[in-house]
């Protein structure tokens, strides 16, 4: 059909729009159809609502022209029915209404009509109006298509957006954002508080601050946070906030949110694969190198010692040959587990003198285990006090591998060779330290495997000595290798002996005489000081009673007590029991404590001191001036004496600083009404100085070395003649 040139509406290359006319009046139908066909439309027609509704589905019109009054189904009914059909809610419906019929017009709109034309129909006018309706429908279709494409893309990208409404103080949400946050479909707005409740508690503050900063600076911000779903599921959200001008030129906060959980999980998996050994889950070579670098940097910053233990399983190839690679893998896995457990159990190995009550272990040492490859494991100790600590960790690791392994019904025994290098002695850089540990490990292999070796030979020697000493200490009580010697304490004015200090001696067949300066620290670190300290207390109490029984004067018995002993629960009653059992007068006993005991200043410490004072036991502060000098405790605790450390006394005649310290300590003691005892007095010059400052008591080689009980019993009756002669106190110099 040829179109009337006067009313051509379709562009030549345009697809003709499809118009459905539903009109029971045949004449009107025909007139309208002709006009539309002339204008280039594709037209279908129906004489009532029921037939019209069928055609809507089969003909798929772009526009429906609908009469109101029709048999079977009127126009209102049909219009409403069209709207209910799938994907038909946007088809423009043009209703034919009477000229002066406002009621019908409003009913038509209620039923879902798009617009209306009045009867009688002006066909020319109608074709023109349809042209615009078609255009706007096509525009609407395109928009809807784009919108659904966008929504699809956002769904695929797990993306959504929101806009902040300053008036309602809520964010208006897109469909996508509901899915991102796992919100109900009915939820179309969210307050800031409700949003924050979705955010992981640990991330809330950061999220709040970032958003606030972005708004204040007027700048876009991007950030990531975690949200927790109602079901406890965790998601990672990437958010981008921006301030834009809306249609009215007002600033408005908008944002997009994207669920990046999968991406982050994948990144984490990749990261894990890159840095962790797949078989054991331990740090691999790359991460180990990184850990080593960081450990050494930390150690250098804090002036710490660190150690690297390189552990290689002896003859691992044999295991692979017998059990196959799978068996070998299972073996490596169990080795890793045992080593990790040995480190956990040995966390305190390097710092066993530290009181850990109330502290997390990680504050001290956090040994780390890595598997750089094959049958090689590395233990990194980031903070050790001395190289021997590393040897202890090596011993533990070796012991962990001692027990037989059960793999696939086979019983397998293994040993390891361990090379130890210590930072900074054996290398200051990671590579250097690693090379040293490797060399030490090969050394251990050469020396018959199943052993550990330090890179530095002197360290091997030191470690060996320490373990010999530790073993000797463990056996010394049973073997009766300890004894006490006694050093008199002299009242300088009266020239008489007021007390003795019990000093411990160790002599073993293997080691000969060992100085307390060497064995007391080891006893303290191993905890052996507790049984040893008890032995000392018992023995000193027994000796005091024995001397009195032998008719000697009643002397004060000073006994050294280690911090670990003092901190034992029920220490005071423990002391009371020992002294009662020995039958010694408690007022005769003085316990020598170091300043470090009092410094922790806990209520438990004060309680123990008060309990001891109640027993009548005296407390002296030993080595005074060498500890931390919080003088506060001197006033608060029930003390009886201060002992000036030997290091100050030895130099009082030559060193003005030491002289000043001694002078100050004596004055301090007097002010606090404490007895003051100078230790290590060796010369008359030192004695003269002390006398001139009013020091009332002293002990030292000048009067007597520490001697055994019999020698003391023989010497005592000879005092004061046996003492050197010194002038009586002349007067105190300033
Ligand atoms: P301390 O309690 O300060 O003991 C004094 C130390 O100085 C003793 O060393 C003693 O022999 C030494 N000495 C005394 N007069 C002189 C002198 O004129 N010149 C010199 N050069 N030295 C003198 P010793 O017996 O070697 O004991 C060392 C440290 O070992 C003691 O220092 C004490 O802290 C500890 N110790 C000794 N016996 C025990 C004990 O039974 N238990 C505990 N926990 N520690 C003890
Ligand atoms: Mg002492
Ligand atoms: Mg001392």
From TrEMBL:
EAL domain ranges (all copies): 466-720
GGDEF domain location: 304-457
Record InterPro entries: Biofilm_reg_signaling, CheY-like_superfamily, EAL_dom, EAL_sf, GGDEF_dom, Nucleotide_cyclase, PAS, PAS-assoc_C
Domain PAC: 221-272
Swiss-Prot/TrEMBL GO biological process terms: phosphorelay signal transduction system
Domain of life assignment: Bacteria
Modified residues (4-aspartylphosphate): 67
SUPFAM superfamilies attached to this UniProt entry: CheY-like (SSF52172), EAL domain-like (SSF141868), Nucleotide cyclase (SSF55073), PYP-like sensor domain (PAS domain) (SSF55785)
Domain Response regulatory: residue ranges: 18-134
Pfam families reported for this sequence: EAL, GGDEF, PAS_3, Response_reg
Keyword line: Phosphoprotein
NCBIfam families in UniProt: GGDEF, sensory_box
The protein's name: Response receiver sensor diguanylate cyclase/phosphodiesterase, PAS domain-containing
Organism: Candidatus Defluviicoccus seviourii
